[in-house]
Amino acid sequence: MSIYNLSSHEIEINNRRIIIPLGAIEQHGPHLPITTDTIIADYLANQISKKISSYVLPTIPYGVSYEHKPFFNISISSDLLSDLLSQICVSLAESGFNRVIILNGHHGNMGVLQYVPQKVVKNNARVNVFGINYWHLIEREFDHAGFVETSLMMAIQPKLVQMEKSKKGYVDEKRLHATYSTFLNNPSSFKITKNGIWGDPTKASKKEGKKIISVTVNNLIRSIKELDDLLKM
């Protein structure tokens, strides 16, 4: 349930979980909007909240996207994002929440999420904070504005997808996935794609997007429930 339009009297804490969707503003090739990561994170968070009792905060649209230079991006530093998330989590704890999920929609934010729980614990040990990168649960290879992200957007916000402008981007299946993941930590790493696309969006479809969403939401819910179980040990 989105917390955005609720009054303070309508919010029932009662050990309830709260989800913070985290996105980014950056280029996604010529066919997808710059808010793609934000839209996907927001959508998945609200789908989760329908199946697990939880609130959803307004999505944070800014992230660490320096790897996209010189392509369009609006980035904030990792320190700023870390402080922002940490302070939000501490404030939530002071308001009575003790379980926070940060649902991340952007690769460049990964490093920040690793240390936010440690910063929060120093201020309030009663809150449990977990960062989850949704693409770890899609059961498909990573891409950027490629088949996966384009299919997701066709299922979530089809009017924002301009398929007539989609083109194949950088694709090289000979290298390890871990190599690419590491390479993307470098500033301006997306220059090698030439057009800002990592993968091939030309075969994407709404049908495939719905399949990916179904698998991802189910896996996200399973992961969250498993985290709850581990907290009880």
Explain what this protein looks like in three dimensions:
The chain has six helices and six strands, in the order E-E-H-E-E-H-E-H-E-H-H-H. The longest helix is centred in the last third of the chain and has 26 residues. The strands form two sheets. A four-stranded parallel beta sheet has the order 3-1-5-6, with helices on both faces. The relative contact order is 0.18. By secondary structure, it is an alpha/beta fold. The protein has a single domain, classed as Rossmann fold.
Brief write-up:
The chain is of the alpha/beta class. It has helices at 36-51, 78-94, 110-123, 147-156, 177-183, 206-231; strands at residues 17-22, 25-26, 54-56, 73-74, 99-104, 128-133. The longest helix is centred in the last third of the chain and has 26 residues, at 206-231.
